[in-house]
Amino acid sequence: MFGLANPQKFMAFTRPLQPVLWLLAVGLLAVGTWLSFAAPADYQQGDTVRIMFVHAPAATMGLGAYAALGVASLFALIWRHPLADAAARAAALPGAAFTALALITGSLWGQPMWGTWWVWDARLTSVLVLFLFYLGYMALRASIDDEQKAGRAAAVLALVGLINLPIVKFSVDWWNTLHQPASLLRAGGSSLDPAYLWPLLTMMAAYGMLFGAIWVTAIRTEVTRRRVLSLRARAAMEA
User: What digits encode the pLDDT tens for the residues 132-162?
Assistant: First the structure.
């Protein structure tokens, strides 16, 4: 597995894997969407319960993508490995998109349930902070011309942001919030009815596969971009 840290081996390994990930992501999204609309309306929430099948997977992937960004940043910062830096950079935009989707769908779900679009709830606020870390990471990289310095500075910021992940996860347990507690991964098993559990699990698998497909594609694109820049720089020196 560590052999894949070599960009050339990574590109060779992921070449056939990339289309498989995309096919699985599209297939799971199609099945998950069908199951989501086939699920019955909730006796309290009505059809708005279907927002859960978008909101919960998006929030989960927002956290997962940042964890991937943080681990890749750690490897890039300590071992100065270009592929780890490329992986960190590639995780930022899709992670920010998933987090933004979680915030938007959370507001759409919260308005009919809580009577307001937004409250400074511990869970909502910590997810907003997560989104700001994503934006800060991308802005910091874009603001420094030297890519190596930009990568190191952004990696430090990414590692600081890892502190927020357990706050997001356990905020509903540590503080009294409007946000509902965990209903999927909790002691005693899931509290969800199977009619909602299976569509949710399918959509979570779909979002996970989608992030994997986007991430691998983005890393491959970043490796190719760096190769092109390196060739151009070499050609300029030889001219």
Answer: 999 999 999 999 999 999 999 999 999 999 9
What whole-number distance in Å separates Cα of residue 144 and Cα of residue 115? 43
Q: Write the burial class of residue 125 (CB in 10 Å: 0-12 exposed, 13-18 middle, 19+ buried).
A: middle
The pTM of the full predicted model, rounded to 2 decimals, is 0.92
Task: Name the residue ranges covered by the structural domains of the chain.
Answer: 20-37+48-178+196-234
Sign of the Cα torsion 157, 215, 190, 45 reads positive
The 8-class DSSP code of residue 4 comes to G
C-beta neighbour count of 207 within 10 angstroms: 26
* End-to-end Cα spacing for the chain: 39
Segment 22-73, tens digit of pLDDT? 999 999 999 999 999 999 998 888 889 999 999 999 999 999 999 999 999 9
Look at residue 191 and give its three-state secondary structure. Answer: coil
